[in-house]
Structures are given as structure tokens and as C-alpha cells.
Amino acid sequence: LDIDLRLADLSSGDRRAELPFHFAIGGTSPERLIALLRAYGYQQRRADFTHLRGRLAGLMTGIIDLVYRHDGRWWIVDYKTNYLGSRRADYAPDALTAAVREHDYDLQYLIYTVALHRWLGSRLGADYDYDRDFGGALYLFLRGLDRAGRHGVHVDRAPRALIEAMDALLAPGSCA
After folding, report:
1. Which residues are designated catalytic?
2. Contact 55/28 with Cβ under 8 angstroms?
3. Whole-number pLDDT of residue 105
4. CA 18/CA 62 separation, integer angstroms
5. What CA–CA distances, in Å, run from 89 to 32, 55, 144, 149?
6. H helices within 40-104, ranges in order?
7. Percent of the chain having pLDDT more than 90?
8. Alpha carbons 110 and 9: distance in angstroms, whole number
9. Which segments of the chain are extended strands (E)?
């Protein structure tokens, strides 16, 4: 990952395991959400959410495996135990990108990112800046991790514009 960091070396103030989140979502249509995600290259194969009738409204809730701060940036970590094969190449970056898309993990970490974005905005207020403060999402496929961090690790940092647009689209009262 090109960072000199072991998660075990982080102070307790710089990490939070199993961070729960809850945020209200305000009534957008599944079609609008999928269109937004596709415009940024996510959920390209996803069509079956759009058959849902009505609106996406209520409470989004979940638990992020780990959130940590390193060098002033916040990171999301999710651990995956998927068996993708027995070869090292089965856990190479391209194979992980395909697995992330196939299992909708990209949608998962985008939701996690919106949750963390809202949390950081509420905690840091006007001092929060996505570009400066958010590092990205790391999906660690435990069966394929290597010491160099080149296999078994999927890293993504969604564009600020996408996260802000998702946040606005999902916001209470948006009904967009």
C-alpha cells in the first residue's frame, strides 16, 4: 500500500473496530441512485435494484469492520474471506476488482464512505475536507494477502463529487 503502517501499531484513538452507523435516507428512487453510481463507473452491471417500487427511505444502518486514521487521513477497512481460487493470481488487483463488482462490495464501501463522510462532517464541522481528510476504502481479502500488499488488497477512493452527490441524493427531505 506504499505506507509504512501496521494496523496493530495504531493507537486506540486512531482506530475504531466495528464502527456502527445509522443515517436517515430521504426518499430517492433506486433508478436515480443507480444512474448516479453508473455515471462514476460503479455498478455498471447492476440493474435489478431498479425493479424496486417506490422510494429508498428510512434508516441506513450497518457496521464498518474498521475505521482508522493515519497521517491525518481516515480509512475504511473491510475484511473479506471469499475463496477466489488457489493461485496467487486469483487475488491480484484485476481479480479483486472483478470480485468487488460481482459481490456489490463497491456499493457497500460507497455507503460506508457516505456514512464516514457524514460522521467526519459532524465531528470536524467546517474543518472537514474530503480531499484532505479521507484516505479511501481498503478491502482485505484475507485468503490472498501477501506481505508486500500487492495481492489480496482492493483499494479505492471514490471521487469527492460522487460522495457529495450520494450524500445529497440520500439526504432526508431530498426526495429526488
Report:
1. 78
2. yes
3. 95
4. 9
5. 36, 41, 9, 13
6. 93-102
7. 66
8. 27
9. 15-28, 56-70, 73-80, 134-141, 153-156
